[in-house]
Amino acid sequence: MKNILGGYWHQDVESTEAGLHDVFQEHSLDEIRTLIQVIEQFLNDAKELDYKRRFIDYWADGVNFSNCDPVEWLRDIQRKMVEYVQGCSGA
Predict the structure, then answer these.
(1) Contact, 56 vs 70, CB < 8 A?
(2) Closest listed residue to residue 86, CA positions, set 24, 5, 17
(3) Which pLDDT tens digit goes with each residue over 25-50?
């Protein structure tokens, strides 16, 4: 998870959308499906929500979470990845 968050939503990224654009440009559909599964496992893990929020906030240091919950932000990232894969594969 830290590689995904730190790699695409670091302090130099322009926006959430820019990070997603980079994911879509740099990964195959199968790799994006794997990223979706990694995010799903993290979100469904038994760890407390506060731990997950701190983890996301720390590793996605390019995102301002003052107006959104980090866990909900990550769910939205995952949803957009799913939509992208479905749109590309015609599903």
Answers:
(1) yes
(2) 24
(3) 999 999 999 999 999 999 999 999 99
Amino acid at 81: M
Residue type, 17: E
How wide is the angle at C-alpha 9 spanned by C-alphas 82 and 28, nearest 5°? 40
Report the C-alpha dihedral over residues 28, 30, 35, 38, rounded to 10 degrees: -160
Model pLDDT for residues 20-29, shown as the tens digit of each residue? 999 999 999 9
CA distances from 1 to 37, 50, 56, 67, 89 (A): 11, 16, 9, 22, 25
Contact present, 88 and 29 (Cβ < 8 Å): yes
Are 53 and 70 in contact, with CB atoms under 8 Å apart?
yes
Q: Are the CB atoms for 61 and 69 separated by under 8 Å? A: no
The domain spans of the chain are 2-89
pTM, two decimals, is: 0.90
